[in-house]
Amino acid sequence: MFIETRGNDNQKPEEVEFSYAILNPSASFGGLYVPKELPSFDADFFENAKNKSYKEVTLEILDMFHIDIEKSVLEEAVNLYDKFDDTLHPVPLVQIKEDLHVNELYHGPTRAFKDMALQPFGHILSHLAQKENQNYLILAATSGDTGPATLDTFANKKNIQVACLYPSGGTSDVQRLQMVTQEGKNLKVIGIKGNFDDAQSALKSLLASQTFKEELVKDGIKLSAANSVNFGRIIFQIIYHVFGYISLLKQNKINKGEKFYQIVPSGNFGNALGAYYAKKMGLPIEKILIASNINNILTELITQGRYDLRDKKLLLTTSPAMDILISSNVERVLFDKFGATRCKELMDCLNQNRHYELSKEELALLQEDFSAIYSDDIYAKDTINNYAKNGYIMDPHTATCLKAYENLREKNLQTILCSTAEWTKFAPTMLNALRGDEKKYPDIEALEGFSQALHVKIPQSISKLFTKEILHSNVVEKDGIEKEILDFIKEG
Ligand SMILES: *Cc1c(COP(=O)(O)O)cnc(C)c1O
Fold first, then answer.
1. Which strand (E) or helix (H) includes residue 264?
2. Which residue of 13, 201, 247, 378 has the fewest CB atoms within a 10 Å radius of its CB?
3. CB distance 266 to ligand 1 below 6 Å
4. Could you tell me the pTM of the whole model?
């Protein structure tokens, strides 16, 4: 069962099943749904899992949660990992140093780790909508990776329509093309004149708008969202952390019972929350090391116990998926550690005063599980360049993890870092790093330049984007979004 991070308002049900929580992701007082209890791994879970495939381990962990989704549906959902590069090994663990291993989470259809959760989640959500005989409009706002992954998973799915908002000019060419060339009659992609915050706040105001919902109801449509506050995504983000450790065991790189560090490049904190839940379930993580860019709000929280937006402005970096100041999933950790009353108090304080402060004792509790550090774009480019020269290619988000590896480990333990995107999504930055220049390369030129310099292939799914037909060319002002979406629904 699932309960609410800010307590119950006596209007909504006190406990809900998984299916309810993912169809209606906003809980009382603007809170989020969290599992009432987490299952635990039994003594020989990890040893037994050494002989199992990623899909088998996934099904086993889902089973431990006793969610109200039929086994056959979960099996179909998990079979979507067959769309990944290597169907037997969708998530390779690659050793790059004696004690450092990369969990490559980006081998799915849209080349970023969002596919890990959105592929199976899309299948489950569409199944539930069909079962209810209810049509849903899913809203998504993206800085570049969530959009393509959401569109890919819902394309042509029954009972689902998607409206995806992206900041026009604010994404890479590859990310934009992934969205505007995506086929599917049930999809609408809208460029916004503004930045990601504008797209995100437009989405939030539509989700809260009674008149918008009433317009949709006239057409028999309910509203939902597929952002990472939806627990349907979080559950799949627990599993790859577990599998990374199982791969270490399988490769004989770690002894039974020995702990390891887990490094996560973080923005909205969904990936890190998955690691936290995995740790609580019994995965032997020594500490979760959080890597950020110069939007260092998470570093401040975890090192100083202070979440303060008052003196902060969002800064644009070469790791745009981490350019974020309001990191939604932190709330689930606050709830888990301090309970609903205190969690609501902290979140209310953030909403009203744009800051909150943890007590010394609370900070100590947070630091039992997390350490954090941030790095700037120069560090990321130097790191990309150094590792590329030695034969390992990592994207600008992944590069921030090395700062944590170099600075935050207090013990000599094996370490796993999450690689969250393929280099091809950020080719201009990659070529800048390699050449040590600051030229603004078009993506196509940067892809070819980088690929030739390092003799790496550009996957077909990326190269073919440049010749595909553009299906969505609308770019609108912020106040034109609602009409654009309603027109799309009426056509539909
Ligand atoms: C979304 C994203 C992140 C941040 O992940 P969170 O779960 O939001 O913390 C990091 N890197 C890339 C490439 C992403 O797409």
1. strand 260-265
2. 378
3. yes
4. 0.96
